[in-house]
Amino acid sequence: xxxxxxxxxxxxxxxxxxxxxxxxxxxxxxxxxxxxxxxxxxxxxxxxxxxxxxxxxxxxxxxxxxxxxxxxxxxxxxxxxxxxxxxxxxxxxxxxxxxxxxxxxxxxxxxxxxxxxxxxxxxxxxxxxxxxxxxxxxxxxxxxxxxxxxxxxxxxxxxxxxxxxxxxxxxxxxxxxxxxxxxxxxxxxxxxxxxxxxxxxxxxxxxxxxxxxxxxxxxxxxxxxxxxxxxxxxxxxxxxxxxxxxxxxxxxxxxxxxxxxxxxxxxxxxxxxxxxxxxxxxxxxxxxxxxxxxxxxxxxxxxxxxxxxxxxxxxxxxxxxxxxxxxxxxxxxxxxxxxxxxxxxxxxxxxxxxxxxxxxxxxxxxx
Amino acid sequence: xxxxxxxxxxxxxxxxxxxxxxxxxxxxxxxxxxxxxxxxxxxxxxxxxxxxxxxxxxxxxxxxxxxxxxxxxxxxxxxxxxxxxxxxxxxxxxxxxxxxxxxxxxxxxxxxxxxxxxxxxxxxxxxxxxxxxxxxxxxxxxxxxxxxxxxxxxxxxxxxxxxxxxxxxxxxxxxxxxxxxxxxxxxxxxxxxxxxxxxxxxxxxxxxxxxxxxxxxxxxxxxxxxxxxxxxxxxxxxxxxxxxxxxxxxxxxxxxxxxxxxxxxxxxxxxxxxxxxxxxxxxxxxxxxxxxxxxxxxxxxxxxxxxxxxxxxxxxxxxxxxxxxxxxxxxxxxxxxxxxxxxxxxxxxxxxxxxxxxxxxxxxxxxx
Lengths: 367, 368
Description:
- The complex is a heterodimer of chains A (367) and B (368).
- With 367 residues, chain A is α/β, with parallel strands linked by helices.
- Chain A has two domains: 8-103 and 110-239, Type I PLP-dependent aspartate aminotransferase-like (Major domain) (Aspartate Aminotransferase, domain 2); 245-366, Aspartate Aminotransferase, domain 1 (Alpha-Beta Complex), CATH 3.90.1150.
- Chain A is 38% helix and 14% strand.
- Chain A has helices at residues 8-14, 16-27, 36-49, 60-70, 88-95, 139-148, 201-210, 232-262, 291-300, 317-321, 330-335, 350-366; strands at 53-57, 78-81, 99-102, 124-128, 152-156, 164-165, 168-169, 176-180, 194-198, 215-217, 220-221, 268-269, 277-278, 285-288, 339-341.
- In chain A, the strands form four sheets. Chain A has a seven-stranded mixed sheet, with helices on both faces.
- In chain A, helix 2 packs antiparallel against helix 8 (232-262) and helix 4 runs parallel beside helix 5 (88-95).
- Chain B has 368 residues and is of the alpha/beta class.
- Chain B has two domains: 8-239, Aspartate Aminotransferase, domain 2 (3-Layer(aba) Sandwich), CATH 3.40.640; 244-367, Aspartate Aminotransferase, domain 1 (Alpha-Beta Complex), CATH 3.90.1150.10.
- Chain B has helices at 8-11, 16-28, 34-48, 59-69, 86-94, 138-148, 200-210, 231-263, 292-301, 318-323, 331-339, 351-367, and strands spanning 52-56, 77-81, 98-102, 123-126, 151-152, 163-164, 175-179, 193-197, 214-216, 219-220, 269-270, 278-279, 285-289, 340-343.
- Chain B has a four-stranded parallel sheet, sandwiched between helices. Chain B has a three-stranded antiparallel sheet with strand order 1-8-7, sandwiched between helices. Chain B has a three-stranded antiparallel sheet with strand order 11-13-14.
- In chain B, a hairpin with a 2-residue loop joins strand 9 (214-216) and strand 10 (219-220).
- In chain B, helix 4 (59-69) crosses helix 5 (86-94).
- The radius of gyration of chain B is 21 Å and the shape is globular.
- The two termini of chain B are 23 Å apart.
- Chains A and B meet through helix 1, helix 2, helix 4, helix 5 and strand 11 of A and helix 2, helix 4, helix 5, strand 10 and helix 8 of B.
């Protein structure tokens, strides 16, 4: 039996007719840009997350860029962030002209909060924690540091939809937060998409203008902006999927709890939520001894797994250009050698999980 | 009789094929970049007559991507026209460069004769706009650019299907941008855009930058961003490409009819010259009229959805003040802004509609 890492095909197939019905509904109205469906989506997100404002954008990357831009961060400024993330975290910082400053991570793959203060300089304008794999950072501590040094906080919550810390949803701790609705997320569309949430009316108004060419009205431009509007066909699909998100996340969490019971954790470290965390479990990242051998073994048994990611951001070729590669971030470098994503999605059966666990236990016992 | 400006309710009436393709897409979950997008890129480059195409989120992103490909940044100047859609200047500003605006000619296009005096040491790019789907005098602009060793980037957002002596917009500059916004000649059901070029080095960079600078999942070459075309929209665009030529043909027929009817109404109405060898897309059918604001009101009262593109030229927008552009002497554009009007001309209008518009305009001027 082949056990796949993700269930995209199955999930989209299941919902195919509902998706197409949603799209049909939008098309029947003859408006295709910034429509009522997008408005509804933004309101729904506000209700779900408890944020005051939401704006649908082209992508999670755009959401990060717009957040930085709205806070006035640009050339000469420094933004503190994590080396263990998707490339867009850094791409967004570079794109607005600022410099990323890396803070090493802890065992939970999130930014090590105790190392932030030593990286703050006169040029530091913001801290951008990443809720990696859907597990939220210790936001209260980060906000405390930010207050002390008068820094802004931008949550990279690309994977944080449905995640909580101390019972508050991702995005509600910071000045502004960026989310993604890319197909590989829990709340996912049929292509790229993203949004910001904020409680700050000024930031909201700014981005609302900026995402639509800076137009106050059709004939009046107040600022030269860009075009970053969430695709309205996708907005309606997301509206429909948002209704199921809670149950999707609960199923995913249940699966992880089964993994936790069945895997012998001597050679493999499985993520647990702390008492303050409620992870949306976007990906199931484990830290494995002899990772590459394990992956090969699982593969031979028809079990898919994926290294997520094998290279921390400061070790990429792109980092050479900006001298970022000179950073020494031993924890992130070390964990990149151990990290492995195991099969994890809401349609995984208990039987499948049992097989994965059995094979992992077997691998470590034999060797 | 209602003469709508927005033709989208007709445009996507028959979506059977598109839905069939979407159903297939959902089955394959080919959602990021994806084979349909690649197929579209190939077919579009063939249609335009260029070697390479990179599909983007939208026309604005296509402009930003084009400028970034040439390394345009803070301290650089980009020359463009003062009557255009805001995104032209928005893209320049997004790259950190300074927009330098040029007055219009009698066809509402960038006046190439006024470019040279605005060239400085900092000028890196001339960005002519194919405004309204008509084209500026590209050959003259290319000559200037060559002489001063400046790049040309075409804002051909409205220019899909236009021709200049047989050559498409997008084949003149080094790297050029198109839009597929719903109200363009080739349109999608949301946003979409393309960058085209014949330069392989630029093409490789564009492809990388649009997709986070990634060579593959595990290798990042440059710090890029995400500007990918929606796969849903790539499918719509592929369908649109099949009928683009008939759309342009029908629009040209309508425009010709309108031209002939309005010619008799001179001097209240001035139709721009239609130079030989220039095929327009008529994204906007514009003319200059006396007593414009009253005519607009009158037409709208008679259910003819006329528009103005735009009552306020860019140099007079609040955004320009915020930028401290302080540029003046746009005498032609300022004059045109008071007189210009856009009449519905799209492919879903029949002779009956065109006659009706002309008749109403005639009535308006006779009434007075």
